[in-house]
Predict the 3D structure of the following.
Amino acid sequence: MALTLVASLATPAAAISPSPQAMPEFNGSVYAIAFLGDAVYVGGSFTTVLTGDRTYTRQRLAAFDARTGALLDWQPSTNGTVRALVAAGGDVYAAGDFTDVSGVRRDSLARIDAATGDLGSLSHRISGTAYALALAGGRLYLGGRFSAVDGTHRGNLAAFALADGTLDDRWLPSADNAVHTLATYGSRVYLGGAFRHVDGVTGAQHIAAVDAADGTLDPDFLAPAVAQVNGIVADTSGVYVATGGRGGHAIALSTTGQVYWQRVFDGDAVAIARLDGVTYVGGHFDRACLTPSNGPHGVCTGVSRPRVKLAAIDAAGVLSSWAPQANGVIGVRVIAANPIGTIAAGGDFTTMGGRERLHYASFG
């Protein structure tokens, strides 16, 4: 895969404000964010939510108004970390390390009513760990590090019918290692992770596309990544990925896997989102490199710019001036774009731009 670095020193005006809005805060890490209407759904390892001067119990799941930050009376609970959320059609789907939801047995995967918090009937045994979810075409797609669903072999990937929650026996792609992220667009499901093969094909290394209906590997998308892919988002303009490695990378790809642009950081890029043509990246990094090489431990070897855990890149691949700064070693775990025109970030940080923002921040 040919890699192109955009090394321009230009810093275009930021697309959104770098100042975080006043929103609820959490006493533990935020791993997952999903939007549905005016509501934000958040999952993670937290057990309380702080809003205003009051603290509320919320066991690893919470919801609040995306515009005002007002906490919603949505209170399902899990007994383990929620690592992924997607929402559509009046339901929120959660995946993670839990074994029960609101006191009812649910192994790593659950369907929850978006309004009431009532638990749906979706129930399966996952032999391993669930990391990622995506929705498209009447299916729920699951990625992770697991070997079976309900005793039926599945190689780190599975799909379920939204209509009745049954395991899809037609969608059978198999990855040889963990799938950490999923994205759907058009007739494809994009996969990213630690794998080196999908369905035994060696060209599908760390990233691949499979058919959304039957799961067959798409030979027209060939973009083997040099390091683990942690985040993927796809839209009309292409496919955008966040990777680890020696340092981290944000890469823009065509629908055939051709590299449009690449940005290099001094730490892992973990999450990626798109809003109004701008690509937002979060992770463990502290600087954006303006040269293509990294030294030991990913340190930028040439000119660089401070970008502490968050950065934005314009449509041409040029680093934006948008630079809110999050603290912590892990930093940002998840970024999500809200159609109302805001970007939300979650993770292990406790400050953002020098202001207290416990594990969640929103920009607009």
